[in-house]
Amino acid sequence: MDKNNDTLHPDFEAALSSSPNALLASIFAPDTSGKKKNAAFNSVGRRFINDLDSLMTDLQSTHAHFIRCIKPNLKLQPALLSPSLVLSQLRCSGTLEAVQLISASYPTRIPYEDIYGRYKEHMPDFVRKLEPQYFTEAIALACDVDESHFQLGNTKIFLKAGKGAFLEELKDRDMSEVIPMLLDKLKEWERKKNARKKLTRAVGGWVFRKKYIRIRNAARMISHAYDTLKVRRKYEADRVERMKRIKAREAQARAEAEERRKKAEEEKLAKAANAEERAKLEKEAKEAEEKFRKEEEARKLAEKKAESEQKATAGAAAGGGGKG
């Protein structure tokens, strides 16, 4: 079984090369290089591979640019824009996110050698002595590219979108017009750098003095607060001790007063007990005297009664004797 190499029949290839269609005629044009034709090179697959190689060669020799086609309106009419339709397409296609990603990243990349190798010999000594990455950084700063708009890599400088246009132009512009302008920018950058150093030292000294004064005032305030706290604590301790002594004296006075009160109550109770006993004795004496008086009166009455009875008896006896 023969291998299927997808070759075209020579008659079919000749018919296509003589086609009135210019595109077909150019695709299947006969090989005029003088080399011996090989069936493998005339296959459709081989032609496709050759076309891909040619396309990749063209792409690698150019800069990649992305074009997104947006439909402005559904009526397909010119000069008519539908904002909601355009915005919906931008959102659905991810264009907004792509723009945000490009803005946040560093899409522009320039090798150090493109600038260092071309302009090194024409720069002042203080720039020529720098390494490639710092040389490129100095050029970027001299060209008013902000430090936040680029990052230094190992072999390339990475810039944010639209921030490295001047550096990209340096690779292609004529050196005779670029070098004087670049030297002026470097001199101005050197003056700004020296002025920035002086200003930084002056501002640093001012900030240090302000910080020193603030720390000194804070230390004084802390020392004053600490001394005040010590005095307040000593005063509080003395006041507590004084209150303790006052309370002790008051407690002692209360104890003495309580003792005197108890003693007075005891004396009062003793006096009251003596008075009750005396009253009881007096009462008993009065009762005994009253009893004695009553007994005396009864005795006297009894004696009187007895005397009267005796007298009566004696009188009766005397009367009887006289009659006899």
Could you characterize what this model shows?
With 324 residues, the protein is mostly helical. Among the domains are: 1-29 and 43-65, no CATH class; 73-104, no CATH class; 107-173, Alpha-Beta Plaits (2-Layer Sandwich). It has helices at residues 10-17, 22-27, 44-60, 83-92, 95-104, 112-119, 125-128, 132-142, 165-170, 175-323, and strands at 108-111, 150-152, 156-159. The protein has a three-stranded antiparallel sheet. It starts with 9 loop residues before the first helix and ends with a helix. Mean pLDDT is 77; it is low at 36-41.
Could you outline the blueprint of secondary structure elements for this entry?
Blueprint: H1 10-17, H2 22-27, H3 44-60, H4 83-92, H5 95-104, E1 108-111, H6 112-119, H7 125-128, H8 132-142, E2 150-152, E3 156-159, H9 165-170, H10 175-323
Antiparallel strand pairs: 1-3, 2-3
